[in-house]
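Appendix B, record 7
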Amino acid sequence: MPDHLHFIVWLNRDEGNISTLGEIVGAYKSLVKVTWGKYIKATGHHPYQGSFWQSRYQERVLRNEFEVAQKRDYIRNNPLKRALIRGELCP
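Structure tokens (predicted):
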């Protein structure tokens, strides 16, 4: 997947959170797509053809602080790794 996104979401039913992960992801996708549509309308610039989002998503349950720390590091370093591979950080 050439362009993608990672994020961490805490769902805590004990605090009255009634949204499911699917509802949260769906709302996020909707908000981004509406904003993208406004950008296209305002600028006339549409660099991508086809669907904006994949219809599905991948999830991973993080069961402890160690796994959370690992995923946070991965999320932070993923764009840097991509830039290094592409040679975008070379002088």
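Remarks on this record: The helical segments are 21-43, 65-86. The chain has a mean pLDDT of 85.
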